[in-house]
Amino acid sequence: MTEKTATEKTVTEKVALTPKTHTAPPAKFSHGVRKGNILQVAGQVGFLPAEEGKPPTPAGPTLREQTLQTLANVKAILEEGGASWEDVLMIRVYLTDTGHFAEFNELYNQYFEHLAEVPAARTTVYVGLPAGLLVEIDALAVLG
Fold it and tell me: Percent of the chain beyond pLDDT 90?
C-alpha cells in the first residue's frame, strides 16, 4: 500500500505535515496539520532548511534574513498540504522587538504584493522565542 499525500486523504482524516526542508519538531507537535479543507501552519521561525546531523540554524542575524526564511518555511508547509498563499485567511506574526514593526511591514508588503486578496493579519510582540530569533509566523488556510 502506498502512502497517501495530504490532498489524497479523506476529508475526516487529520494529517500531520513536515516538509523535507524541516527538522522534526522539538516537542510533540506538528509543523502543520490538515483536516479536510482546513490547514493550520504552526509557528515557524527563520531556520534554514534542515541538514542531517546539524542543529537548526537561523538564516542570519537580521530581521530581513529571518523574515524571508520564515515565510519560505510557512510556504513549504502550505505546499506540503496542497495549499498556497492564496488559500491563507489569517497570518499571525510575533516579533521580539517593537522597533521591528516598520521594517517587518515593508518586507511583508513586498513579499505579498503579488496577491490579489491579502489575508487578515495580526502582529504582536512576543519575548518567548529562543535567543537570536526575531520573528515567528503562523498561518491558517482554507482550501477550495
Answer: 73
